[in-house]
Every structure is written in C-alpha cells, then in structure tokens.
Amino acid sequence: MKKILIVSYSQTGQLNEVLTSLSSPFKCDEIEINHKIIKPKKPYPFPWNFFEFMDCFPESVYLDPCEIEEIEDSNDYDLVIIFYQVWFLSPSLPITAFLKSKFAKEKLRNKPVITVIACRNMWVMAQEKMKSLLKNIDAKLIDNIVLVDQGSSITTFITTPRWMLTGKRNAFWKIFPKAGVSKEDIKNTSRFGFAIKEALENNLEKEKVSICSGLKAVSVDEKLIKSEQIGTKSFMIWGKLIRKVGKIGDKKRKPFIALYTVFLILMIITVVPINMIVQTIIRKVNKEKILKQKSFYEMPSGSDDFRMKDFSKYE
User: Fold this and answer.
1) Cβ–Cβ under 8 Å, residues 113 and 139
2) 119 pLDDT exceeds 90?
3) Cα-Cα end-to-end distance for the chain
C-alpha cells in the first residue's frame, strides 16, 4: 500500500476544494492518505483586517515562521503533497513554519514532493522560495501545479482584495467575475490525482521525476515576471526596516506599514504601468531569453499538454 502525506493551510476554504478534487482518485484500497492541516497557535483571521494583513508582509518575505501546533506522526510516506497560498510573493507563514519544523525535516527528507498553489496570478517568486525551503530539508520537488483566479489582472486586482478584506466573493457590476479560481478549474484538477495514482501504481514516484508533466500543470505569465522581481525587492527593503521597528503585532509598526501602503499604491499606479510598457518592448527584443526564463520557472511540471488526451475522460 502506498502512503501519501497531504499538508495544507487554507483561510478561505478554496484550497480545501482544490485538495478534495485532486485527491479524490486516491480513495481506493491501494492508497492511504494522511492529511495534516497546519494550525497556527494564533489563528489568522478571515476576512482579514487590513493592518493585520499588511503586518504579516515583513515576516512572510523573510520566511520568519509563525508558531504552529506540533504535528505527531510515526508513518513513513511514499509521496508528499503540499497545498499552499501565496502571501506577499512568498509561501504563507503557516506553510513556511511547517517546512522549518522538526517534523518536516524528518518526514520530508529524501521524499518526492508535489506543490499545489491556488492564488491570484503572481506565484513565481513564492515557488522559488518554496524550492529553497524544500532543498534545505533535502526534499525533492518533482511537480508544481498552479491554479490562478479567474478574470484579467485588472479585474482580479479588485475582486481578490475585496474577497480577502470583506469575505465577499460574488461577481458584481457585470464586469467583475466571481473572486477566486473557477469551479471548472478546481474540478479539473482531478486529472492530476489520476496521474499521480497511476504513477504510484507503477512506482514512478521512486524515480523522483515529474509525474504530472504534459497535463498543463503550470503556465507562467511572462508579463508578470519582472513585476514580481521588482515587488520582491520592494518587500525585502521595507520588510527589513519594519522588522527592526518591532515584532509582528507591535503598534510601533503601524505608521511604517501605513507609509509603505501609500508607497505601494503609488508604485502600482505609476511604476507598474510604465514597467509593463518597457517590458513589452524588451520581450520583443529578447524573445528567446524570455522564453527560456518562462520555461525555467515552469519546471519541473511544465505547461505542455501532450498527455491531456489520456486524462480528458476524467474532466
């Protein structure tokens, strides 16, 4: 019997829906699932209070773990699947805390790991940090699966924060779609579950190579790569300053967080549009370089679809 460890942390519940769909094929006699939900000792709210949300960004970008409840488990696993959210272009603090825990260091060592992300549209820098966290505990990333919110970058710039800060997810004004990943995309993640099940039946996980390639697991939007890199640098500079002022929750941080929020909004309004125009020109001039960059960030699963026909019956 194969054993799968599933690790997750979800505030809104959307990630749980993705988890349920993807893992549905595992419900059989040949596979045993153990699902560990990461529980911060001090729960994070949903909907978020604005200042509580922004107060998390310095620790998020510097991968400072929050306190989580201890996990106990004596099982040895064939495969680990981590479902995570993106906070400030970084893995969420509870997931970071898990990956820095004694449990993760023991259980994930030399194990094949699949990561699953559900987010707005910027996840590349978060996954690069995830790669480093996994490497630090000698875990082997074999696949990455990414689901992004429905709608354009402009509409999700409104719908996602609205959902996060108010809990309202519904479509409105005829131009703004429902917030979050579409129901169809969530449903179709079952194809990855069937691919993983098939791989386990053939012991392919032991080879520690991608088992979800050819299934359109991930697609990098090359237009956002530079924006993510600029955003990460900004978070690091301001995060370093705010961490020096005080620890998370310290009232002394509020003025600096407010100042950075104003700076961030101004940057989004002014710098980001200009950068997008400049990057459009650069992409045309350095097309081959950009494609190589896109391919790198899409590894190890890639955006190819050559196996989709084999699993289309499950959609």
Assistant:
1) yes
2) yes
3) 26
- Report how far apart, in Å, the C-alpha atoms of 233 and of each of 89, 122, 125, 154, 268 are: 11, 15, 11, 22, 14
Burial class, 202, CB count within 10 angstroms (exposed 0-12 / middle 13-18 / buried 19+): exposed
Condensed to tens digits (0 to 9), the pLDDT of residues 182-229 reads: 999 999 999 999 999 999 999 999 999 999 999 999 999 988 898 899
CB crowding 272-299: b at 16 or more within 10 Å, else e: eeeeeeebeeebeeeeeebeebbeebbb
Residue 68 CA to residue 100 CA, distance in Å, equals 11
- Domain boundary assignment for the chain: 2-221+298-305, 223-294
Whether domain 2-221+298-305 has CATH 3.80.10.10: the reply is no
Quick check: 83 and 8 in contact, CB under 8 A? Answer: yes
pTM of the model: 0.94
Contact call for residues 187 and 21 (beta carbons, < 8 A): yes
Q: Is residue 47 exposed (0-12), middle (13-18) or buried (19+ Cβ within 10 Å)? A: middle
| Contact of 90 with 83, CB cutoff 8 Å | no
8 Å CB contact between 150 and 178: yes
